[in-house]
Amino acid sequence: ASEGLATIHRLAGRVVNRPASVLNCHRRSLVEKLVAAGLPFPRTLLARTTAEGTAAVPVDLLTTDHDPIWVKRGDVHAERPEDVVVTDRDGLRQALAEFEGRGIGWAALQVHVPGPILKFYGVADGRFFRWYPATDGDAVIRVDQVRLREVAFAAASALGLEIFGGDVALPSPEQPVIIDVNDWPSFARFRSDAARAIAGYIHDSFHHHGGNA
Fold it and tell me: Could you list the pLDDT tens digit for every one of the 213 residues in the chain?
């Protein structure tokens, strides 16, 4: 659908989250663009899920022991829970075989980043930015909020997103590491505030572009 829209969006006036930016959130493009932008991002290898592809994976670049390895479908973004699984070097072959069995030809293999996971949501002009811990619990999580915001908005800019969300791992308070970025996320706990911010952003953008929406 996004590929089809990409051919006609220039005729539609102002588009928020252009089709190209949506396609940038597909796994392979996401990895390539975030790495090219120099953003903090886990080491990630793109591999074919065939037996030959699995055999060629340089596993020692992901772990030298039995540390966790994240296996994510490498074509589009995650659509089902089993599109993102965690294993180790002993289970990698089986994990990739299961992806291949589901017709998924590519996988992104990612090193594990220790620390709590945070979810974030934002609007490009900065009028809205929120985050929260991905897991419930009583532990206090220290966060350098200026750095978190900086990394989140830089990732969105690298992908061309105006309305966005994502996940970071936090090995230390001042070291957020981008794990994923999404176009049009759920906005979870902040939907009412996000709706007002998005509406305001689109309204202001419409007038800024002379009403061509």
Answer: 777 777 775 656 778 888 889 999 999 899 999 999 999 999 999 999 999 999 999 999 999 899 999 999 988 877 888 999 999 999 999 999 999 999 999 999 999 999 999 999 999 999 999 999 998 766 789 999 999 999 999 999 999 999 999 999 999 999 999 999 999 999 989 999 999 999 999 999 877 665 544
Give the contacts of 85 (CB within 8 A, at least 6 positions apart): 70, 71, 95
Contact 107, 56 (CB under 8 A): no
Q: Where are the alpha helices (DSSP H) in 102-169?
A: 145-159
Residues 6+ apart with CB under 8 A from 202: 16, 213
**Can you give the pTM of this predicted structure?**
0.88
What gap in Å lies between CA 161 and CA 17, rounded to an integer? 5
Name which of 57, 138, 135 is nearest 92 in CA terms.
57
Q: Quick one: which of 118, 40, 131, 31 has its CA closest to 76? A: 31
**Closest Cα partner for 143 from 126, 131, 154?**
131
Determine contact, residues 110/69, Cβ cutoff 8 Å.
yes
